[in-house]
Amino acid sequence: MNKLLRSHVSSGRILTAASAGVALCLAGCISSPQTDRALRVRCGRMKALTDGPGHDTEAVWSPDGRRIAFQTDRQGDWDVAVLDVADGRVTPVAAGAGHACYPAWTPDGRLVYAFGHHPMTAVQAARSGADCGYGLRVWRPDGGTSERTQGYWRDYTPSVTADGAFVYYASTRGNSGNSAGVWRVPLDGEARAACVLPLDGGTVGAVQPSLSPDGRFLLWAQLDGFRENWRLTAAAATNLQESLALTPVEMSAYAPRWSPDGRLIAFTGFRAGDPGWGVYLLEPRSGELCRLATGRGHARSPAWSPDGRELVFENNRSGFYKLYRMAIRCDPPRAQPAEAPLRLDRVEARWDAGALVDAEGTRVSGAQQAGGALRFERPAGLDFGEGAFFVDLTLVVDRHEPDTRIAAVGQYAEHALGWQVFVRENRRLFFNARGPDGRFIGIESDEPVQAGRPVRVLGIRDADGSMRLYVDGRKQAGRASGATLCYGPALSVCFGQQWNGGMRLNGKVLAFACGRGYPPGVPRVMTSAGLFDGEAGQ
Asked: Which spans in 346-482 are helix H?
């Protein structure tokens, strides 16, 4: 695998799986266990396109189907070359000093690729005046090249939109280390690049972005900071904040490519029981997966032919990664009864005029004063279940003292659901809630709380167990972490001083609400039906 993506992947998770795999014995594909819904795929035999020493990777078919661009290290460094499909002739188009990698075709036959000089430190670069970052370049059939982006960051994994107007790519610009967000720049003209998907608390890296052929959806590979795993993620192009993970949490997936008709996604994947990295097909609307039979070795980085009838990919069965092509035909899964979209916006309890009330405004429980804490017993039926839930409150901390920690505590249904919001010794807010497995998971705010100022805190535990924290409407970049603190008796809500401990809030809670799902105006965790059937952004 190329060096750029390797910097974003822990060595044991993505790129360094065992090099030799057991040969797959099925002629077509290895489908999902749900055979009545599985994709039905028929594959031709693998045909070698390149041979010899060195690695040939990251292939992509030209729009006319006559050529395949790829990166190769045959000369000791990454260069971009073009293969003539008819006669097998290979022509270098970006070679020489420096890395040239990640080629992407434009509709009019140009190539966009990432280019950078040999690595050097920032100090060395400043002294020499050399460009040590990776920028995007454009190659023309007449042999000319031009720079599209440049800097001391890394711009890579470009993808050109079907209309040729824009290039989407990953960039480390403005981020620490090698973490990447998604950027976009016009293919031509003087307009500057713009970040369309910045990093946040749940996104450690986002690479390999591509727009669907109809321009409606953006697809990328995302490294989830909580799971520490690469997953394919998609969102409506007009609303990237409500994204959907397309691959299971237990699966590693990257290098996605839309099929020309936008119906399927080919990608590199690995899950428990696989003999090695392989080529998978995904139907995003149904979530159905199948693994193609690509023989022994690791198979990676698939790309579609313009007519959608073939895939080109790399395989290391010979000891080097070489390019192969395979004819493919995929029938859609059998139709399934449509499920009604799940709408999660109901508030089940809220703080109003000194009382805990239900969604209709009816007081749900009596109040007890206990050691300075206002305590409400849980009424019957106030059970948020196993899905996503939120806690939304506005609080004021009058002053900070060593024991100023507790803001609010709640626990329901005998450990099925629990949550806490408190102020840590560093004056940062901490939202802590139980995941589906019963384990407490927490997220800390980016900045300390200012004494005497109201602050709105919104904590959301998504259905998959991940956490999100918003402070005054801004999503916090804090990474989810395990927590062992658990305060408050079961079936109760408490604000203020803990009645059986010495921890108290030197302030007050001005507003409070909690419930199942997501409050209005807050980005939801998108469902497949919501994204692909037209609800995204509503």
From this structure: none
pTM for this entry: 0.71
Domain assignment present for residue 528? The answer is no
In terms of Cα–Cα distance, which of 525, 520, 344, 513 is closest to 421? Answer: 513
In this predicted structure, the answer to whether residue 338 has a pLDDT above a threshold of 60 is no
- Is residue 182 within 8 Å of residue 161, measured between CB atoms? no
Q: Quote the domain boundaries for residue 166.
A: 26-331
Which has the closest alpha carbon to 166: 135, 189, 187? Answer: 187
The residues, ordered by sequence, that sit 6+ positions from 215 with a Cβ below 8 Å of its Cβ are: 161, 162, 163, 237
DSSP for 244-289 reads EE-S-TT-EEEEEEE-TTSS-EEEEEE-TT-SS-EEEEEETTTTEE
Q: Which two tokens stand for residue 510?
A: 């001005």
Tell me which residue of 297, 294, 231 sits closest to 18, measured CA to CA: 297
Domain end point (choices 296, 331, 366)? 331
Cβ–Cβ under 8 Å, residues 276 and 291: no
* Virtual torsion, Cα 303, 306, 307, 312, nearest 10 deg: -30
Place of tokens 């999100």: 468
Q: Among 76, 101, 83, which residue's Cα sits nearest to residue 2?
A: 101
Indicate whether 363 pLDDT > 90. no
The encoded tokens of residue 483 equal 């927590």
Q: Are residues 43 and 98 in the same domain?
A: yes
Residue 509's pLDDT band (cuts 50, 70, 90): confident
532 near 285, Cβ under 8 Å?
yes
Total number of domains constituting the chain: 2
327 lies in the same domain as 378 = no
Kindly state whether residue 19 falls inside one of the protein's structural domains. no
Yes or no: say if 289 and 280 are a contact pair by the CB < 8 Å rule: yes
Q: What is the CATH number of the domain that holds 54?
A: 2.120.10.30
Q: Per DSSP, what are the bridge partners of residue 206?
A: 222
Which CATH number is 493's domain given?
Answer: 2.60.120.200
